[in-house]
Amino acid sequence: MSKMKILKSGYTAEIDTVDKQSWHQIINQFDDANIYQTWSYDEIRCGRKNISHLILKKNETIVAVAQARVLKIPIVNMGVAYVRWGPLWQLRNTEKDIEIFLQAIRALRNEYVYKRGLVLRIFPILFDDESDIYLPLLKQEGFKRLEQGKKNRTLIIDLSSSLEDLRKGLKQKWRNSLNRALKNELDLIEGHDDELFESFISIYRELIERKKFVEPNDINEFRQIQSDLPENMKMRIMMCKYEGQLCTGAIFSAIGNTGLYLFGATNDTGMKSCGSQLIQWKFMEYLKEKQFSCYNLNGINPKTNPGTYQFKAGLCGKNGKDVYFLGQFDAYKNALFGFLIKCAEKARSIYKNKM
Question: How far is it, in rounded angstroms, from Cα 168 to Cα 175?
């Protein structure tokens, strides 16, 4: 792999110089801010001692930041620094500057690969249709795309159109279901308090049990994250009641310039009343009111989960696009080091599956 590179003139990097409150204030300055880069998210999931923060400045102005989750692997006395949906480098009310992205990934590599001797794995918010721009930069800075597994795929809704046009852009079947939901006079409850989170979990558990799903994320961890997040970053919970009974719910995040769908659940009554359509539409109305740019439906898989795909595709309709993330990228000092980390990760995964 290529050697450590000096940052371009005018750029400087700071490591672990901020506290939680300052970090949340800083990431609020970025359009690409997201829940996975909040201090609360990684502190709850892996502990304060296992998170690290990088701040990149240009002429003393903060231009990029990244939160890394640092995991040590005792078997081989090595470790991984993982940056999910980062670095953040798109400042509000400014044009994209590719140089900032380049300097940010360079600073990350300098710190975690060369100074700390870790494997650095980043999962940037970049998509395949931008590959001609970003793949050469990542390669130039010593990052190699992970080839194993399938690339994550999602739907992104562009919210620049009027609500009227967004509604026209829904697929016909989905729009018909929304119309039925509106006629059903469902009671909508929304907020971010713990009692509402608990109510959602009750419906979510019913869904998991009924469909025999393997829970992709620990809902109780997100409940703890919710209690720790600052007020302006808390997840938005929306629930529907039909004839006095809770029947449908969803949890969303709205940070930066993008809304993000996190969890959804419905029971048989919710299916009949089309409560899920109403909740999704009301969240889009909320995003429009708060002037968000887009809505990320957070993952689709037409083969393994066709029902959810059809629901999300109907919501996206003509208003958005089906995209693949560019992928995850590793940087490490040498190929042997990377190989040993992969072997250790595989062994750790096998051990966890046997527990």
Answer: 8
